[in-house]
Give the backbone structure.
Amino acid sequence: MGCSLASSLVDLKKELKRNHNPDFLFIEPSEMVVTQELRDVTAMGLRDIHYDIGPFITLVDGPLFDFLWSERRTLLLGQVKDADLVAVSRADAIEAGELIKVRQALDRYCSNLITLSVRSGDGLAEVVKRVCGEA
Amino acid sequence: MRVVSVSGAWGSGKTSLICELTARLHTIGNSAAVIVNEQGDAVYDQTFIQAHELQVRTIRGG
């Protein structure tokens, strides 16, 4: 994430805080941003305004895992390693055997790995708990 | 204000998850905003935005 982009993100955070002060501000970055970059940029702005930070959630697309693991492993691990919660998303669209394979591949890189399906509701309660700071 | 980030590959369900979370938070009286990169997984629906009083901002290239 470049300097101008980071600066734009900080400006937007300030604008939202000062004009609306939402209870929660969700950041949905581009798919190429790694978590540590995001952590650094998220902390920028604390000099001017107060806000709480986290959790940093990384979604690992279950059905796309083979492609991500073979072609984009560096990026994938950059998003997984520094995350507070890693969720294998669209988990309802893959077989149980595939899910075990994903878990085995990622387990050593993250301590908080869950399965998630917004469609079926699997894992949502855990995410809500994390977001609300209850976990 | 709590800043929460949802990362992942294109199509991994970031927007769907954020919509689900904001809807659930809204039902318990919490307000939310989103800063989304311009290539977001899906466009945030205007009806949804209005129904949940969601503030949405787009960041170019982010």
Notes: The first strand of chain B starts at residue 2 and ends at 8. Strands of chain B lie at 2-8, 32-37, 55-59.
